Amino acid sequence: MPFPQAFLCACLFLCVLPVSAAEPPAPSEGDFTVPEFHFQSGEVLKDLRLHYTTYGKPVRDAAGQVTNAVLIMHGTGGSGQQFVQPKFAGVLFGPGGLLDAARYYIILPDDIGHGKSSKPSDGLRMKFPHYDYTDMVAAEHLLLTEGLKVDHLRLVMGTSMGCMHSWMWMETWPGFMDAGMPLACLTVEIAGRNRMWRKMAMDSITKDPGWDDGDYTRQPRGLTAALYILALIGSAPLEMQHDFPTAPQADAALDAWMKDRLPHYDADDLLYALDSSRDYDPSAKLGSIEAPVMWVNSADDMINPPELGIAEQEIKKVKRGRFVLLPITAETRGHGTHTLPAIWKGYLAELLAASGSEETTP
Predict the structure, then answer these.
(1) In angstroms, rounded to a whole number, what is the distance separating the alpha carbons of residues 210 and 222?
(2) Long-range pairs, 206-213, Cβ under 8 A, ≥24
(3) What mean pLDDT is predicted for residues 12-33?
(4) Are 79 and 109 within one domain?
(5) In this model, does residue 3 exceed pLDDT 50?
(6) Would you call 346 helix, strand, or coil by DSSP?
(7) What is the mean pLDDT of the chain?
(8) What does pTM read for this prediction?
(9) Is the Cβ–Cβ distance between 206 and 222 less than 8 Å?
């Protein structure tokens, strides 16, 4: 076993402890520009802007190598800001947290096409390079190595799309990190229902006459349809039935959800983001991963449903890997459980303890 059993018992207990969020320090934000970025498609962007958020400061050993950097990557349509929220940063980055910003240098990038990084809605629309996951991971690597001068990671971690990027990081640069924690994904090609719902959302946009081949002057109605699909596939039935037990309550909740999110989405940006997963399939190279891996999914995740049995088979290819399936509880939130470390932080503690010394000091 790659992880001590005695410590596992302690971690299982930690997972159900009440959350005691500590206020983390204020994060910093910045931009790094990559000139003449070449995409897998052959397209080139003259200046690729990569936005990022950080907590803490890098620490280097006697050889000058960074020892305390943690890379955390967001999901499709999101940004690094999803980890600045109290439910995440307050649990992990504050004083005494597992990723206390006084000890760790935490890096939260906005991927290509997301957040404040370069994206189609900046003006190029459908002329924006058609990026894929390989492009996004290459850009993340450039941000760290050339922009932030980080040559090693204590931990690579990600949620949903960021989960998939974590696997790609561990395969592409196997000696770059001490540990990996992918949250809420699978390690096979995006196919089956996972591909179908993405195509449904993309088709909802492109088949709307109001999309006008991406040159719309107002958001097409197809964007609303696409967000409906995202709302459904990412939801947790137990939570929604409990919180909205009547039809009027459910209708009101959906209306509020859409009213809150619709102004923050752009049809072309979402179209590109959903399509970018087309090149993902790390299954063949899982055996090349050197770092210990703690892979965590949730049993109520409709995007990565446990009945497929994929994770249990795929983890056997990872030399120092372990797969954890979180049971459905009143606290889990379907696919969104990935951004609730109060539920899975015990497994993070186990991974950190099993993968190296924690003597890092600022």
Answers:
(1) 8
(2) 206/271, 211/267, 213/126
(3) 69
(4) yes
(5) no
(6) helix
(7) 93
(8) 0.92
(9) yes
